[in-house]
Fold:
Amino acid sequence: MAIELVCPAGSLPALKTAVDAGADCVYVGLRDATNARNFTGLNFDDRALADGVAYAHARGAKVLLALNTYPRSDNWARWTAAVDTAAERGIDAVILADPGLMRYALRTHPSLRRHLSVQGSATSYEAINFYHEQFGIQRAVLPRVLSLAQVEQVIAHTPVEIELFGFGGLCVMVEGRCALSAYATGESPNCNGACSPGKYVRWEQTAAGMEARVNGILIDRFAADERAGYPTLCKGRFAVGSETYYAIEEPTSLNTLELLPEIARMGVAAIKIEGRQRSPAYVGQVTRVWRQAIDRVAHEGDRFRPDAAWLRELARVSEGQSQTLGAYHRPWK
Amino acid sequence: MKLALGPLLYYWTRKRVLDFYDEVAAAPLDIVYLGETVCSRRHELRLPDWLDIGERLAAAGKEVVISSQTLIESESDLKTLRRIAEQARFRVEANDMGAVRLLAGSDGWVAGPSLNVFNDHTLGMLVELGARRFVAPPEMAGEALARVRAAHGQPLETEVFAFGRLPLAYSARCFTARHFNLQKDNCGFRCIEFDDGLALDTRDGRPFLTINGIQTQSARVHNLLGDLPALADAAVDILRISPQAHHMAAIATLFADAVGGRRAPREAFDASRALMPAEACNGFWHGRAGIDEYVA
Structure:
């Protein structure tokens, strides 16, 4: 089976760009806290969703709806309404994190395909099989914590299709198990779908340099010759002991292009590109590169080598212009 | 209201751990959670050692619960998890859905704080599978918790993280090893040098987070001593105190006195300030940024 290419879209133009550039699936979110990219000006209203599904289906592509935040008892109905919307609009699969919501989806719309979101924090086949047995999950997106050898172990012990992150912004924390943003701002990735949200960010030029604060907390300070990146909480420079450095992670993107033959060999079902918050231009560039790479690896197998041009193109759109293999490559840990 | 001591999140020497739990046996705590929940590389104590400590604490009248590891990565992690699930001596706290799968159908296990139970639908599902106690996610506000309990309707032991540095995040990467420019596989177990974790400050010198191996904690100490009346209103049954390096028995006594009505909650809170390694916070309980210290 060929690896499916799953691409992000934060808007209808981005969805169309992804489909035109060769995405097998495009994943999207609604304009509220039901998804993990709840940013101002981003995402799909009902009309855009209908148009997007029609556009993708007419061209043989699928649309997945991310409903991957955790509803509370008081706002539960908004999440179930979103599942209903997915079923009514002909969405090909919903990407869920909350077990209660999975059960709702299973019982109310049994024929609607269910994927386990990376926000579900399932890092072992025992956890994935739990979701499979209880809620008929057909695919799981793995958190970016396992080495490739560990991914292979998971695949060997589950009937569930496995989707891996291949490219894009890198969460260094286990997705669904990070409350850093909630701690610093009160806005929770788990419940509000936002991490280090823009409305809490303040930039200030000081004698010591350009300071980036989130809710008043200094995340980094940039000298005149440094490129000032977005102050995502885990990607700032902090003082530990006598050293000031990127104590958690550098601003960097995941790029697994060179691992593609191994990923294909072990039976990974799909590769996910991160970045619903990025522009249609980013989506187009990254999708085109990965489409070519996946098609080529299907023919070349272990002889596959990424084109230098592809790597240059991906490097241009990477966060902080640097890239890593992340946890797939064990020494990163 | 009962008092529980959460699992030890730091890495201490074997002797220190044994001495610590000797002290715990005499402290006014009803429930003690045991086991390594953070990093499988830590080896001062193995599962049989934790079970031995459990026996001693049970003999001292404590309810003992064995907590499972939060981030499961390897086959050997799963092996330990199965041994925990299969032992029948003590209740088990499930800290990931793999543990839930292994415990499903057995009666009386605890749904741990990292399971992301934010609504009554998910809670009800876990109760159907045999959970008899639920530890709210630390980031959950009191009001949201009260709604979950009300909507669930059935009696169910509810526990809240009430004291200690907040476990905020888990990673495949070890940040203590990173600090020493070591790879995790050759980490030298340097986290044993930091009995309350390794401080991470902002560049303007303010405490922000605490590095504890693959776990990231708050720098501030989450402390709900002053919020006891609201905890009682939210039908909370159990308060979790998370182990710290010093003054544990004194902290437990303050909680016991406040819960028992022998000391006013606010006064107990003020007394606790001198016993904490950092400033207090309680924002999560009040639906605010967790780092906030909020007084209603």
